[in-house]
From TrEMBL:
Residues 1-39 are annotated as: Disordered. Gene3D superfamilies: Jann2411-like domain. This is Conserved protein containing a Zn-ribbon-like motif, possibly RNA-binding. Pfam families: ABATE, zf-CGNR. The lineage of its organism: Bacteria, Bacillati, Actinomycetota, Actinomycetes, Pseudonocardiales. It comes from the Bacteria.
Amino acid sequence: MRTPAAYRSGRSQAAKCPPLVSSTHDRTSKKRAANSRGLTSPRALAGWLADRGLAPGGTAVRGADREAAIALRTALRQALAADAGTAPALRDHPLHLVPDTSGGLRIAAASGRPWLDAVLEAVATSVARGDWRRAKLCAAPDCRWAFHDVSRNGRGRWCAMEICGNRQKTRAYRERRHHDHPAGG
């Protein structure tokens, strides 16, 4: 299967921060859980892949495929967190340059799983283009959702200012207020 257009386009959010990085099996937010249902079982992963155009509906997904997706997600999230232990996990995903149909070269992965290759190729292209530096983990300790920072200066800290940013700023305000005006004092 070819890399879906949503992953190839330089203007696509998916191309800049592939959704596998944010997919999870332990989210508590209803909104996020609905958007990230993908890695809870092989069947759920198959649906997640089909929803994103990474594999045709009804694609057989085995437990080993789910484990490979989780391993890649973990390695990419570690890379976003600047974890020095990321390199060994990423070595399991070699990339190559191959001729493109336009006469140029493109980055290609050959994991044996076309859908995983699409994610790997999107990440590699994002890194080469300089977009990966805008992929971040939410600074909220109870979130840590991966997101693409679209702020003008590239210093966004939260996946959603109206949710995580607001919670963090409210917590900080309450802590300052409690420190400045202790109860009973």
